[in-house]
Amino acid sequence: MGMVFGRICVETPKYEVIQSSAAYEIRKYVPSVIAEITYDPSQFKGNKDGGFTVLANYIGALGNPQNTRPEKIAMTTPVITKNPEKIAMTTPVVTKTGGAGEEELKNMVTMQFLLPAKYQKAEEAPRPVDERVVIREEGERKYGVVKFGGVATEEVVKGKVEKLKQSLEEDGYKVIGQFLLARYNPPWTLPPFRTNEVMVPVE
């Protein structure tokens, strides 16, 4: 019942708040290990979050873990998504673009699960059975972040990103990459209780 009302009861990434204002926070995130999949959503009949099932199978969230140990891996949040400067929907899974031709890249999405902090190196995490799942390390990174509730529609996210970038640049920060959309709640959480964030990497 708690998840319906937005309660977050799983591990979240560790970060330090460097600056806080009414408009945004500047956060420095510690290094982490991630599991990611890059895919064309049309492979999943147009479901932009189709990669979620593949990653959830890897950690064993939907049954037996599909990794070589096999070892169940605790779910964390958010799910993050990242892709080109069009809006890509994600949830404390992350999505971004993959390596392909220019036209193909426009359709590609990368979704990421942050693995629990007990995995300090990529080789410490169980190896995926599904070759589409890549395990890699992310170093320390800094983001400008805005938190918001409700449903993270493409239109809402676009507005948040544009406003955040403008505020960051006005305050002298240099934007150095694509934004991420982090969603902290499962789809059945009531919209007024959802937690979302847009994250823009800065120097």
UniProtKB/TrEMBL annotation:
InterPro entries for this protein: Reg_factor_effector_dom_sf (IPR011256), SOUL_heme-bd (IPR006917)
Gene3D superfamilies: Regulatory factor, effector binding domain
PANTHER family (UniProt xref): HEME-BINDING PROTEIN-RELATED, SOUL HEME-BINDING FAMILY PROTEIN
Family (UniProt): Belongs to the HEBP family.
Protein name: Heme-binding-like protein At3g10130, chloroplastic
Species assigned in the record: Juglans regia
Taxonomic lineage of the native organism: Eukaryota, Viridiplantae, Streptophyta, Embryophyta, Tracheophyta
